[in-house]
Amino acid sequence: MRGHRYAESMNLRLYDTRARAIRDFEPLQPGKVTMYVCGATVQSPPHIGHVRFAVNFDLLRRWLLHQGTEVVYVRNVTDVEDKVIARSQAEQVPWWELAYRNERAFSAAYDLLGCLPATLEPRATGHVPEIVALIDRLIEAGHAYASGGDVLFDVRSFADYGALSGQRVEEVQSAGDTENAEAKRDPRDFALWKRAKPGEPSWDTPWGPGRPGWHIECSAMSTKYLGREFDIHGGGIDLVFPHHENERAQSLAAGDPFARYWLHNAWVTLSGEKMSKSLGNSLLVREVVRRDVRPVELRYYLASPHYRSMIEYSEEALHEAAAGYQRLEGFVERAVEFVGEVGAAPLAGEGTDGEGWTSTLPDAFVQAMNDDLGVPQALAVVHAAVRDGNTALAADDKATVRARLLEVRSMLSVLGLDPMDPRWRRSAGQDDSLRAVADTLVRALLVQREEARARRDWATADAVRDQLRDAGVEVTDTPHGARWDVADRS
To answer: CATH for 14-293?
Structure first.
């Protein structure tokens, strides 16, 4: 494979929801990208559908970092919102206790899946002054009005409303986000500030005590930390409307240029439905990694499809993804044993000299990643390199094994999936118990096969090999003895 060395300019292209097209990505400031991603509303612990966004935007961030780009990544926490309050009342615990408990669960899930820590992770409750100031600007500009203790955004006052989601304002249904509907000039007007209700958190403002509406929180926090105009605003596709549509409307109406690119990842579905807390069909991250697969295998499962493609969850698909990762892992481990540890390129970013790094990667991998984060195509390049590497291992070809090992580790490092990363490395005390049991059983069968071969009992030796193959185990005879791995069924 030919290698690629990074150029000064960026060749990345991304699908922009607002443009409904893939666009050349040109950051406001060369060498620096500012990105705001809508994080968790912390009414309950995270399910695997919830954390898909975190993995997908971590991939984008890593790809930018690996090109030597500085990334300022802000991911918010919505710790006060209708759902948080309703759940706290149902559980009969203070809203802040529930919010903090689930915020920690989300943080643990991000870390478990190898997501880099956000540059900043602001909470909505910590930014009420900024929210109030932004609402003041909207009232002064004639785009918002106070009524009955609420403050509402006047949808009809903003001519471009609906442009992000592709809806006509006449087709938009009532916002349904306040009990004070009679105070609205138009049913589609949405709440910027909600009047206080007994037993709910509230802050004093010029319009009376109350709390922020959902949408205004992100407009205030994103511009506080990234400026009035920034590069990327992202989140799950379910946020396009109403959340991001309303964010965009209120921010532009206040005079802020706001986000230049809008990126959205697709859902994880279960039986054709969006995996959601409200439907009760969620699979908690902590349960999946305790019961079914290792964290790195769950990351591989969530990262493998294109970020704009739906994932239809099934245990079979999850375990197929785990087997796919194990094939990559098996090659890396065998190659390291054969030629020694060939290091992957380090991740650029905080704590470095700011110049990033340059490394040789296959052209096809770079082209796939630059084409709207084409991870499926990029992983096809990885698997092809692994197949070449396994052939070289069987041939005792050290030079080729070393070259493929460097390529594979470099590509997997970009994706946050390098098996030699201390986070994932089995030799660092993180061995998977099922793999260890399987290794013991397979090696026992291989001993029987070798004994049969020594007796020239070819029928028994072939029968053992066929039995292993039927179980999904691939056996390779090498000068150093038989090796095994999960069979590549791709």
So the answer is: 3.40.50.620
Cα 385 to Cα 40, 299, 322: the distances in Å are 37, 21, 18
Token digits for 287?
């349960």
Please report the DSSP string for 155-214 in residue order: GGG-TTTTTTTT--GGGPPP----S-GGG-SSTT-EEEEEE--TTS--B--TT-SEEE-H
CA distance 258 to 243: 15
Give every CB contact of residue 157 below 8 A, 6+ residues apart in sequence.
142, 143, 253
pLDDT grade, residue 489 (50/70/90)?
Answer: low
Residue with tokens 């049913």: 187
Gyration radius (Cα) of the chain, Å: 26
Q: In the chain, what are the domain boundaries?
A: 14-293, 314-430, 432-490
List, in order, residues 6 or more apart from 372 with CB less than 8 Å away: 13, 14, 15, 22, 306, 308
Q: Of all helices (H) and strands (E), which one includes residue 442? A: helix 433-454
- Strand, coil or helix: 465: helix
Alpha helices in 37-183 (DSSP H): 52-66, 82-91, 95-112, 128-140
pTM: 0.84
Distance CA 246, CA 237 (A): 14
- Element spanning 259, H or E: strand 258-265
> Using the 8-state DSSP alphabet, how is residue 244 labeled?
I
Residues in contact with 2: Cβ distance below 8 Å, sequence separation at least 6, in sequence order: 362, 363
Helices (H), 232-359: 245-253, 285-291, 295-303, 315-339
Spatial CB neighbours of 276, under 8 Å, sequence gap ≥ 6:
49, 282
Q: Which two tokens stand for residue 244?
A: 């991001």
Per-residue pLDDT of 403-423, as tens digits, reads: 999 999 999 999 999 999 999
